[in-house]
Amino acid sequence: MSQLRVEKVQEFIKQEISNILIDGLKDPRVGFVTVTRVECSRDLRLGKVYFSVLGDKEKRGKTMDALNHAKGYIRSTVGKALNIRFTPELAFFLDESLDAGENIQRLLNEANKA
């Protein structure tokens, strides 16, 4: 499958899941969630959804549980909107890159003060 098509599908899935989290999911455990990126396999059978959450570790854990609980609903909703033969099996992962970026920024600020 062409890489361009995979990238387009990834971006569509990212937008669709973001819309579902805003409008369609009524779970109180899902608060300020941002879908940062989606990575699909070349055959579009598997999709890794990376997200970030504002809050502490407990809030992140609750959000992860809620997303895993709603995985079937999210997948079926994305599948209806995507309209391709196979809807990717979704797996949710916490995106740690934002925390790493904050840590680097903090270290740089401390180094500049010294």
Structural summary, described in words:
By secondary structure, this protein is α+β, with helices and mostly antiparallel strands. The protein has one domain (3-113): K homology (KH) domain (GMP Synthetase, Chain A, domain 3), CATH 3.30.300. It is built from four helices and three strands; from the N terminus they run αββααβα. The protein has helices at 3-24, 57-69, 71-82, 97-113, and strands at 33-40, 46-53, 89-94. It has a three-stranded mixed β-sheet with strand order 1-2-3. The radius of gyration is 16 Å and the shape is globular. The model has no long low-confidence stretch (mean pLDDT 88).
Offer a concise description of the structure:
By secondary structure, the chain is α+β, with helices and mostly antiparallel strands. It contains 4 helices and 3 strands; from the N terminus they run H-E-E-H-H-E-H.
